[in-house]
Design a protein that fits this description.
The complex is a heterodimer of chains A (154) and B (75). Chain A is an alpha/beta fold. Chain A has a domain of 107 residues: 3-Layer(aba) Sandwich (Hypothetical Protein Ychn, Chain: A). Chain A has a five-stranded parallel β-sheet, with helices on both faces. In chain A, strand 1, helix 1 and strand 2 form a beta-alpha-beta unit. The model of chain A has no long low-confidence stretch (mean pLDDT 94). Chain B has one domain: Translation Initiation Factor IF3, CATH 3.30.110. Chain B has two helices and four strands, in the order E-H-E-H-E-E. A four-stranded mixed β-sheet of chain B has the order 1-2-4-3, covered by helices on one side. In chain B, helix 1 links the parallel strand 1 and strand 2. The chains are: A alpha/beta (154), B alpha+beta (75). At the A-B interface, helix 1 of A face helix 1 and helix 2 of B.
Chain lengths: 154, 75
């Protein structure tokens, strides 16, 4: 059986998609898949994903309906608005929500590993995270990653 | 061609047509034929790649009025 390992390090809406899309697809193609969530990537394992947002700030390639100067992007509420617009667009185009892709991963036996160090670092509560995940460190990841066909850092 | 199961993947975008195809095939038996209808033009290449990698034979791909119809034979 082919294997794929992914390290998910980002907690923004745009960067949350690649790990879940690739993990669920690889599992559908028969791969044994593990995803290691570390630093901000750990936010993707929260029960509630409403804090996963997108910002046009520092994202100059993001297509905007109207040109928006950086000082406008900094205004309060812009991040929430951009997130709403992006989620609306994703839905209209038939792209799955993060919650749906995450469930499809779990259904397909993708293994999620949460970085224990990150949990300690940010004083996270394990009860905030979904069930069916494991907690581990770099060595835990390497044990699986060392023997994979595809290994990605996202 | 006898079709044993239908999957309506209209309106869904990558990777959902493939994931739903995989799920639909799961409870079928070897030799049965699944018919998938998709509106995602990317699924044409993806369905072939899915077939190549999983061994479920892609019997045909047809396009009509912006809809793509795939016939897959369960491995």
């Amino acid at each position: 059986m082919k294997k794929m390992a992914i390290i998910a390090t980002k907690g923004t809406l745009d960067m949350a998609y690649p790990p879940f899309i690739l993990a669920s697809t690889a599992a559908a193609l028969g791969y044994d898949v593990q995803v290691f969530f570390t630093f901000y990537g750990l936010q993707l394992l929260r029960r509630d994903l409403s804090d996963v947002k997108i910002s046009p700030l520092a994202n100059p390639a993001m297509p905007m309906p109207v040109p928006m100067p950086v000082f406008v992007q900094m205004l309060p509420g812009m991040e929430t608005m951009a997130t709403m617009m992006m989620k609306d667009k994703l839905k209209k185009k038939g792209v799955a929500s993060l919650e749906e892709l995450r469930s499809l991963c779990l259904e397909a036996d993708v293994k999620f590993i949460a970085c224990q160090m990150t949990v300690d670092l940010f004083d996270f509560e394990k009860s905030d995270f979904i069930d069916n995940i494991e907690y581990g460190g770099a060595a835990t990841f390497m044990e699986f990653a060392g023997d994979t066909d595809i290994c990605l850092f996202i | 061609m006898q079709v044993d199961k239908e999957l309506d993947a209209r309106g869904l975008n990558c990777p959902l047509p493939i994931l739903k195809t995989k799920k639909s095939l799961a409870d079928m038996v070897t030799g049965q034929v699944l018919r998938v209808v998709s509106t995602d033009c990317g699924s044409v290449k993806d369905m072939q790649a899915f077939s190549n990698q999983t061994g479920n034979e892609l019997l045909s791909t047809t396009e009509a009025a912006g809809e793509y119809v795939f016939l897959l034979k369960k491995k």
